[in-house]
Structures are given as structure tokens and as C-alpha cells.
Amino acid sequence: MLTSYPAGTAQVAHNVFSRDFETRVTPNGTQQTTLIVAGCYILAIAILWHVPYLKMIIYPFKLLTVGFHEMSHAFMGLLTCAKIHSIELDPDEGGATQMSGGIPWLTLPAGYLGSSFIGACLIACGFDTNASKVASLVLAVFFLFTLWWARRNLLTWTLILGMSGLIVLFWFIAGGIALRYLVLFIGVMSCMYVLWDVVDDTIARKVNTSDASQFAKICGCCPSQVWGFIWLLQAILFFALGVLVGLVAFKDSAQEQKEAAEHFLPVPGSSSDATRLNCPSWLLVTLMCIHFFTT
After folding, report:
1. What keywords is this UniProt entry annotated with (predicted)?
2. How many angstroms separate the CA atoms of 193 and 45, rounded?
């Protein structure tokens, strides 16, 4: 049966949707604070990136984003039936994933696109305390896989274990609020590193060993600078989508987030006893998983 609607109904629906969308993306007070902190992160990272000695402050986080890059190669390799031999990080902020098989035109761009996607997800989760807790647990699973693939690389082990300890420490500060800002920082750092690395390796100068150069050889239709520019646009899009999702999905105020966090994986000493996660047991399970993956 054909149903007719009065003229102008579509326009009214469009106006209602537009007003609702505008309301959803308009930041509240807590979100405004998060955006200001994220802006300060961007400014601080941009400054520290090139200042001698001071850049050592963000050095571990640079290596972590390289780890995200290599881990993205590895996971795409698994999805395309490749055999992952190893993941390695080096002190010069480089990395390599050794694999055999797979589909190169999927595994090569997965490094930049995967790490920018991870960064965008962490940025979105950085708008909410409980979402940051979930993101930390997901990162823990990724860390375990990375430790398995990089079990012979001491630098990777040191980095992952250090970051894991930092995440656990921040989980205990201010009922998880500190963890939210740590997750936000890691997300911003990951996205910025992707943007900088793509520009440096493919647009500003051509590095023959870069993912874009290898991808250009496989495709044979465009130079590496073109693929670098495409990946750069995609990384910027992921960055923007991370902020947008955070604004739309997490509208709770700081007080509401604090109350919700007391009932979701609370730290010892919080006011909730219903779903408390016992810290020694949690650490014991983590150590058992590490032992399983490394023996």
C-alpha cells in the first residue's frame, strides 16, 4: 500500500534531525574540558617532538605508537592467513613485522590505517572513564599478542611491561579519572605520530623502504607520494571521527562518570562492593597469561 505524507514532512524531519545532531555534537562542560586537554596534548606533543632532551619525555609513547603500527600489520596478516614470525622495535623509533603469506595490498596499508584507527578509538574512549577502562583491557589483550610475537625483542618487552604498569597505576588514581586522560593522551599521540610519519616518509621525502613505497611497487599505478597523501587524509578522518564519536556517545558529566566508575571494575577502597575487582587476583591472572604466551 502506498502511503502519502503531507508536503513538507520530509523538511520537518530533516530539521528535527539537524537540531538533534547539533545537540549531540555540542560539547557539555565535561566534554569541553576533555577537548581543551586534548588540544593541550597536541600542542605539547608538537613542541616536545623536536626539542632536544625534552623529546625523551614522549619517547616511550612514540615507541608505543610504533608498536600499534606493527601490531596492525600483524593482525591484518592473521586475517589474510599469513604466518607471523616476529615483531621488533628498535631504539631509533623504527619497527618491523616479519611474516610470510598474506595479501600485501592489505597488510601494507594496515600499519598506518590500523594505528590511526586505534588512536581514534582511544580518543573516543578518552571522553569517558568506564570506556577508558574497557579500552585498557582491550589494550592488555593486544599487548599479550605483541609480547608473544616479540618474545625475543627486549625493547618491546620493556616497553609493553612499562606501559602496562603505567596503565595499572593510573587506574588507581582518582577512581580511574587519571586513566581516562592517559588513554586520551595515547590516542592523540598515536594519531599525531601517524600523521607525522606519513608526511615524513612519503610526502616530504621518499623513503624506499616505507610501506607506501612498497605498496606503490605492488600496485604500479601511483607513486608512493599519492598513496601517502591518501593515507594521510584517512588518518585525519579517523582523528575527526574519534572526537565526533566521543562527543556523541559519552555525554555524562564528570560526577556521573565518577559514580558509574564506582560500580564498574572499581579499584580497592572504592565505595562499591558489588562488582569489585580484587587487585592481586587481577594481577595474578595477567601474570598467568603472560606466562602462557611466553612459554
Report:
1. Membrane, Transmembrane, Transmembrane helix
2. 10
